[in-house]
Amino acid sequence: MRWAGQQLDVETPGTLPGLGSIAGLVRSVTTPEFQGITFHEVLARSALNSVPGTALPFNWTVNPYRGCTHACRYCFARPTHKYLELDAGQDFDRQIVVKTNVAEVLRRELARPSWKREPVALGTNTDPYQRAEGRYRLMPGIIEALASSGTPLSILTKGTLLRRDLGLLTAAAADVSVGIGVSLALGDEVLRRRLEPGVPSVRGRLDFIRTIRDAGLPCGVMVAPVLPWLTDSTEQLDHLLGQLSEAGATGVTPLVLHLRPGVKEWFMQWLAYDHPALVARYESLYAHGPYVAQSYQRAFDTKLRPLMTKHGFARHSPHRSEPIRGMHPSPPPQDPLF
Fold it and tell me: Which residues, listed in sequence order, are joined to residue 180 by a DSSP beta bridge?
């Protein structure tokens, strides 16, 4: 198991298989307000994760949590739990690793003379504003560490808990570039509850986008994933883009569902239960890899283009503030746990 380099003591009840107590430093916690969830508190050895050589607009990430209580059936990060000898299904939703000292470690790393103040992205793996953040409050320290060091930052979230830190982010934007992105793809509340049971409501996130904009910060939206034959009709996309425009989104990035190994099995299990008539069509559509067939993508792009123009999203719009004086279109390589 990759709890690298730390000496284990006696096993304690509630810990992960093979994970022992680390004399006052690591523990597993269950609480009544998070029924069915176990938090595994870890002391991280590093906070900044390097992801060089990608097509993304950043080379560094910080991920304070592993696993995610949003429990999205399609989440691309699910296979990362296998590195911990946990499964990509329910364990990903219920066994949450918390890097309790991440802000302290980050401050040390940002103080190194070698740090060049390159942009740092949060929310590239699992959501930094999932429900656990309400308990652990790791993000204020992370934001303060980045801003005080002169490091640009971006945050992508499905959680409205970021509202708590808007004052911090607005203050940070006076000194560094700050990007905020909200993920909102499922406009149907019934479907949202089935596929994203731990995510705030559609209305809640639309109101959240308005709140971000009222705070004077830009807010891009990831319309991802668009689900073939479930959320991809012209009428559905037109309605959702209209809502996002009305809410004040400064840019929109629509992405069709992709199904990596480890995610596909979990998603297809849900599809077989909720929409069995679509199983064969999905198997054909994703027969050659994690991305949809090129013929579907071309047709989708053709359908989408006039809708983006109609709602004012045709041209590139900023998702970042500029200092007063994100978006993450595809998953980056896996970052290390410690």
Answer: 155
